[in-house]
Amino acid sequence: MPTLGSLPTQHPDLELTFVWPRNTVPHHGERVTGLTILRLDELLENGAPRRLDAGALIFVAGAMPFRIRGRIAVAIEEVLRQMSLDGCVGLVVTVAEGVSQPFPQSLRDMSDLLEIPLLMTTASADRWADVHTSIQQARLAIAERRASQLNALVQQLPAQLADPKAMQRIASWLARALDVQVLVSEPDRVLAASPPTAAEHLAQAIIRQSVEGGAPESPSAPHTQLISLAPTSGADTVLAVARRTPFDEAEIRLLRHAAKLLGLVDQARREYHVAADASRAVRTAAVQLLLDGEVDKARRVMEQMAPGLLDTETARLFVVTTEPAHRDTAVRLCETATAGRALAVADPRERNRVVVIQPVRESEPDENVPGELVRLVSAPGPVSSLGGSGVYSMSLLGEALNEAGTAQRFALHQPDSVALSVQHTDLVSLLCQHDAQRWARQLLHPLMESDVQWEQMRETLPTALAYPYTVAARRLDLHRNTVTRRVARAAQLLDMDFTTIGDRIAVGLALELVTHREPPETALRGGQVPTLHQLLAAPQIRAWAETLLSAAREDRRNLLATAAAWLTFDAHLEPTARALGLSEVTVRTHLRALETHMARDLSSLNGMRDLQFALNIVTGEPNIRDIGRQLCAAA
User: Considering only CA atoms, which of 559, 447, 443 is closest in space to residue 510?
Assistant: First the structure.
């Protein structure tokens, strides 16, 4: 759009000249929105119009005397007053060739008072009419361009304001539309920049504003704009733009519009993060409760967030690994891939793991969850390996985590970094199921002779052997004395001592085989019953043991000797430390290192079982009571 200063350059044939004031520079930037032509004869007859267009340049057409005076001067004074009221930008009169100062002192004084510049020209009114047409055409073109820019700016808004890429798209568009460098930033980080080097150029201006509380004062200051995205909320997010040429008013308005949109995106981003953090905290708490066997509490926690998700009786568990720095991204990918069908949370115990729990409905098996997780491993991205468990009761997801952790360790040696088949990773699944079922049923036969007694034992013993009786009673919703009495009765019937790790492990394994594994038909027929040593002598079991202990054997500390002594003394620290000549602190440190190397929880019965069996297979220590042979002999 033309200005008073640019009109003489754009239309040199009009011979437009500033006459007053002497310093015309402050008026050069005034935008001219149109041209209003007043005929001198009509002006003298009717006086000044009651209304003039704001931003217009007023042209008085008609033969002017060498020096304006009398009725003409009075009429022009009246025009100047009306121009001041309506916000016009300047007054032009026609003069003859050679005239240099047609305005008397009275008009020049009024010009100073009203701050309206006085100009003169030798061009006719007809030629000035063409100028008016060109100004209107320029205004129309600018209006269309601004409308197109606003439309394009609105098009940059995402379908969801919390879209993490929305701010960068708006910044990139703004950089192209106005040919500027754009930076959207908070005090401690850059949110969006276009081009990528914009941060380097604009950082100084932002720092100066934060220190001085205003726009920077420097030679480049007129060409830098700093706009707060949310000044009323106290947020520190700022839009900063810069370029070599000054910004006009329309461009500044466009920047403010862009800042409003960026402010909405920023507000949505903040609120989404708060809501997402709260949602993840709830899901993490639910997973922790599930892993601790507190199924009812976990269901109550998730009821409002995902009604019915945890209503199943069984579930599968998956372990996804990634680099610690990329775990948040991996969690989001897993959440998206399993939305509405599983719980995906960052494992609070392992910095490089994501835990995914998939509730399983027997009537509607869903293979999409493992399929989506496998896709994440195969696609480029942060997910590096995947391990999965079999189907477990909701109350036994702690054991499912151990199995999935073992599967993930096996996955590291697979071409696709995936191990979902428990037949290749879980000790119980690696056992010969025919022989294992015969061994387990022979061992538990004294408990199974009475149906009522068996129902009580199969309900109580798995938990009572894995936890202190007080904890077991709370989990089973029984009185502690009831749990103690049932365990004592089982020990008497089986002729075992449940204060020893070996007997608890053996009976726990037998119970898992009988209550959670479907026996082959041939296992229920007569035949030779194997011993526990014979069950563990299979080649696949040795391979499992070697893999499980491989990382621990490479540790410079003699962790396996500590583990064997600890199991020999039934997991008591004091006699273990005394026998090894170590401190109890050192023994604890060795056991924690073993947990990391094996991906096992050595406070759980299954964790101790895997450690005991693997140690016996690989090193021969500690000794394992060959329970099956003793029972066979007694039979």
Answer: 443
Mean per-residue pLDDT for 495-505? 91
Task: Locate 354 and state its tokens.
Answer: 């994501």
Checking if the pLDDT of 203 tops 70, the result is no
Q: Which two tokens stand for residue 450?
A: 């009475």
CB of 535 within 8 A of CB of 590? no
Q: Is 150 helix (H, G, I), strand (E, B) or coil?
A: helix
**Nearest-angstrom CA–CA distance, 578 and 562:** 11
Angle ∠(35,41,46) on CA atoms, nearest 5:
85
Tell me the residue type at 90: G
| CA dihedral over 276, 278, 282, 285, signed as positive or negative | positive
Prediction pTM value: 0.41
| Integer CA distances (angstroms), 111 to 80, 329, 341, in order | 8, 67, 77
Cα distances (angstroms) measured from residue 381 to each of 227, 318, 337, 411, 493: 36, 18, 14, 17, 56
Dihedral of CA 411/412/415/417: which sign?
positive
Q: What is the pLDDT of residue 31?
A: 80
Phi, psi for residue 399 in degrees, rounded to 5: -70, -35
Rounded distance between C-alpha atoms, residue 522 and residue 194, angstroms: 72
C-alpha distance from residue 535 to each of 434, 442, 511, 532, 549 (Å): 10, 14, 16, 5, 19
Locus of tokens 């869903």: 366
For position 254, what pLDDT does the model report?
A: 79
Query: How far is it, in rounded angstroms, from Cα 57 to Cα 52?
Result: 10
Q: Which two tokens stand for residue 67?
A: 């020096």
Angle between helices 166-178 and 249-291 (to 10 degrees): 170
Q: Are the CB atoms for 415 and 421 separated by under 8 Å?
A: no
Interhelix angle 433-448/627-634, rounded to 10 degrees, is: 60
